[in-house]
Specification:
Layout: H1 2-37, E1 44-47, E2 52-57, E3 63-69, E4 72-77, E5 81-84, H2 92-101, E6 109-111, E7 117-119
Antiparallel strand pairs: 1-2, 1-5, 2-3, 3-4, 6-7
Length: 135
């Protein structure tokens, strides 16, 4: 009897975490499947790559159309949706705080050789579009 007790205990120590881990995975998969089937137009979502978008069309079985910017709709696999997110609602307090802290930053002035005052452009500048494949 003592010879069978030790192997039986070792098997239980190994088997219990395996069973519990499998149950946890099944619950997570069921929750993800429920999320994917409940998506509707207008829902705000985040993809697995971290892109925030709004669901534009969810009528297809395997794909979903996401609006990533106004008028820009892209097609994604449903499995790429990670979670629903709540849309950011700006309150009156947030708007008041933003206007109180906004400061006007003037462009630095550079003296030219002709003693004329020239304002330097600050910030990002737009590069001309690349023309790939055209010669």
């Amino acid at each position: 009897m003592n010879q069978l007790l030790l192997p039986l205990l070792l098997m239980l120590v190994v088997a219990i975490p395996l069973v519990m881990g499998t149950r946890k995975q099944k619950k997570a998969a069921a929750a993800q499947q429920e999320l994917l089937s409940s998506l509707a137009p207008g829902d705000r979502v985040m993809t697995t790559s971290g892109l925030y978008a709004t669901v534009a069309d969810a009528s297809a079985d395997t794909t979903i159309d996401l609006e990533i910017a106004e008028g820009v709709v892209t097609t994604w696999l449903r499995q790429a949706v990670r979670e629903k997110v709540e849309p950011v609602v700006e309150t009156d307090e947030d708007a008041a705080d933003a206007t109180d802290t906004d400061e006007v930053v003037e462009a630095p002035v550079v003296e030219s050789k002709d003693d004329e005052r020239v304002e330097e452009k600050s910030g990002a500048q737009i590069a001309p579009p690349l023309e790939h494949g055209k010669k």
